[in-house]
Amino acid sequence: MTRIAIVGVAGRMGRTLVNAVEQDAGATLAAGIVAPGSSLAGADIGELAGVGKKGIAAVDSLAACAADFDVLIDFTTPQVTLANLAFCAEHGKRIVIGTTGMSDAEIATLDDYRDSVPLVFAPNMSVGVNLTLKLLETAARALGDEGYDIEVIESHHRHKVDAPSGTALKMGDVMADALGRNLKEHGVFERVGQCGPRSDKEIGFATVRAGDIVGEHTVMFATEGERIEITHKASSRMTFAKGATRAARWVAEKDNGRYGMQDVLDLDA
Ligand code: NAD
């Protein structure tokens, strides 16, 4: 039974994770961590998540619950996540990271921990999204440089703080790799004013932020005469939380290394 601690347990994903771990036969809720100094420290994490009393009081530091868990699930902010990663490496814990919005330098920091902690990092933990990445790789490879314009359109709720979404960027990366392009060079993230016609190789991104949209991604491959659209729509955060719980069970058995959801799901993308 994998003992799981959840960071940011009072957050949107944190509360959903409590539900997902509760429902998982191979995992058990071990601890929940709130922000330092939070008035929610001491609150029952089951009550925070709306699943009834669990008898586990939220703590406001990892040190306060280090003995209780095997795997930490972290959906917070880049700075908090990197500090928690260092803690896990130091204390022989494993970690599943769902936090998005990391800079390239912060993502590179994850690699510094390859030899000191088993970690899964994925900007999207949904099984459906990870299968979609595989479909996009196949489509990009097949369509190649045959005149198909690629555009990624993503929509999320009004509270999301980073754009484009980590998932949209990951989709762009997978397709750029399949096409021998570089997203840094070919990604177009803004079009405004007299920006001229699109170039053949660019991969365009458009962002919608509105209401309570959980997460929608459409990739369009458009050419003269036809258009292919591959769409994934998340209707509940439970899809991410279930994927993260599955990743936590999986990484509990792994050696040090940085893994992604493709590894967890054995999709090899
Ligand atoms: P949120 O703001 O609702 O929750 C974040 C929580 O972290 C808050 O409750 C905050 O108080 C807490 N927190 C901040 N500092 C902390 C600290 N030092 N210790 C403990 N807790 C701390 O945000 P959210 O919607 O739950 O999203 C969190 C992150 O997860 C974002 O980066 C989001 O993009 C990402 N996300 C990833 C996936 C995925 O599948 N990988 C899916 C959904 C969201």
TrEMBL record:
Could you tell me which pathway this protein works in? Amino-acid biosynthesis; L-lysine biosynthesis via DAP pathway; (S)-tetrahydrodipicolinate from L-aspartate: step 4/4
Gene3D superfamilies, from UniProt?
Answer: Dihydrodipicolinate Reductase, domain 2, NAD(P)-binding Rossmann-like Domain
Start and end of every Dihydrodipicolinate reductase N-terminal domain? 3-125
Q: Active site: which residues?
A: H156 (proton donor/acceptor), K160 (proton donor)
Cellular localisation = Cytoplasm
Reaction catalysis annotation: (S)-2,3,4,5-tetrahydrodipicolinate + NAD(+) + H2O = (2S,4S)-4-hydroxy-2,3,4,5-tetrahydrodipicolinate + NADH + H(+); (S)-2,3,4,5-tetrahydrodipicolinate + NADP(+) + H2O = (2S,4S)-4-hydroxy-2,3,4,5-tetrahydrodipicolinate + NADPH + H(+)
Molecular-function GO term, any one: NADP binding
- What's a GO cellular component annotated to this UniProt protein? cytosol
Keyword annotations for this protein, in alphabetical order, are: Amino-acid biosynthesis, Cytoplasm, Diaminopimelate biosynthesis, Lysine biosynthesis, NAD, NADP, Oxidoreductase
Binding positions ((S)-2,3,4,5-tetrahydrodipicolinate): H157, G166, T167
Q: Which family does it belong to?
A: Belongs to the DapB family.
Q: What does this protein do?
A: Catalyzes the conversion of 4-hydroxy-tetrahydrodipicolinate (HTPA) to tetrahydrodipicolinate.
Q: What is this protein called?
A: 4-hydroxy-tetrahydrodipicolinate reductase
Organism listed in the record: Vreelandella subglaciescola
